[in-house]
């Protein structure tokens, strides 16, 4: 596992956790472009493989990094990284956490309906692959799709562990794209510090209404249920949003001399 500290101007340290696709690179960590754009003080964890941040490794990391960064800490991760932001919240001294699409566990015995990560589970690495209230930061938000075939079952388990659920319906694991713009992420982090789950839901709702990806996903759901007219309308809206986004990118591009 790699841990990289990036000093910044914020009065708190954003602790990020790389997901399944993130691998250690010299000087790089997950969410770094947004961190640098927002001038945040940050500590980034990156796993060397799909090991889901074993407790033994994170216990050693917590001891080694205890004096790094600010006293105020907010964890942020997606998928595997979101699980880590919840599971190791107290251990790493986090006061807040923003977990995007976190599973409550990947232990097949605990979540038998979710087969996505069964190949990653190791009883030796994770003798307690479960979230407890004692694990979580003082206040944690979990962004979940309540209608997603895999994510829906995790919601009640996350809530039972003390996480505040923030619905991002019909995104099926793609909720992270709603936070892709640095200024949107800044707003989300401010709402997490304020313990404002309703405000966070409103922010994501506004982002969905302008997201081509969300309209495409919803159109696919409508088509599977044979709502052809609804699907066609959603696809048309997605195409219009994509065109608008392309025009915006073109307008912001530097002009040739």
Number of strands: 7
How far from one another are the termini?
46 Å
**What's the helix-strand series?**
EEHEHEHEEHEHHHH
Determine the CATH topology of the largest domain.
Rossmann fold
Quaternary class: single chain
- Relative helix content: 25-40%
- Summed up, the helix count is 8
Q: Which blocks of ≥5 consecutive residues have pLDDT under 50?
A: 248-257
- Rounded average pLDDT: 91
- The H-level CATH homologous superfamily of the largest domain, spelled out, is Alpha/Beta hydrolase fold, catalytic domain
Structural class label: alpha/beta
Shape: globular
Number of domains: 2
CATH domain class of the largest domain = Alpha Beta
Share in β-strands = 5-15%
- CATH architectural category of the largest domain: 3-Layer(aba) Sandwich
The main sheet orders its strands as 1-3-2-4-5-6-7
**Main sheet characteristics:** 7 strands, mixed
Radius of gyration, in angstroms, nearest whole number: 19 Å
């Amino acid at each position: 596992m790699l841990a990289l500290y990036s000093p910044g101007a914020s009065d708190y340290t954003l602790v990020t956790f790389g997901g399944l696709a993130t691998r250690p690179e010299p000087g790089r960590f997950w969410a770094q472009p947004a961190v640098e754009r927002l001038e945040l003080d940050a500590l980034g964890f990156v796993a060397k493989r799909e090991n889901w941040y074993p407790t033994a490794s994170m216990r050693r990391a917590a001891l080694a990094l205890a004096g790094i960064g600010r006293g105020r800490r907010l964890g942020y991760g997606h998928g595997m990284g979101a699980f880590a932001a919840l599971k190791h919240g107290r251990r790493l001294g986090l006061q807040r956490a923003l977990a995007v699409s976190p599973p409550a566990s990947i232990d097949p015995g605990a979540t038998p309906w979710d087969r996505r990560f069964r190949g990653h589970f190791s009883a030796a690495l994770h003798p307690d692959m479960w979230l407890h209230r004692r694990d979580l930061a003082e206040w944690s938000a979990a962004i979940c799709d309540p209608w997603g075939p895999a994510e829906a079952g995790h919601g009640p388990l996350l809530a039972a562990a003390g996480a505040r659920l923030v619905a991002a319906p019909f995104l099926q694991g793609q909720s992270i794209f709603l936070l892709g713009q640095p200024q949107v992420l800044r707003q989300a982090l401010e709402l997490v510090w304020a313990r404002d789950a309703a405000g966070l839901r409103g922010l994501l709702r506004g982002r969905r209404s302008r997201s081509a990806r969300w309209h495409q996903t919803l159109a696919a759901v409508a088509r599977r249920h044979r709502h052809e007219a609804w699907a066609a309308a959603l696809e048309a809206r997605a195409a219009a949003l994509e065109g608008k986004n392309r025009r915006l990118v073109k307008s912001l591009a530097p002009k040739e001399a």
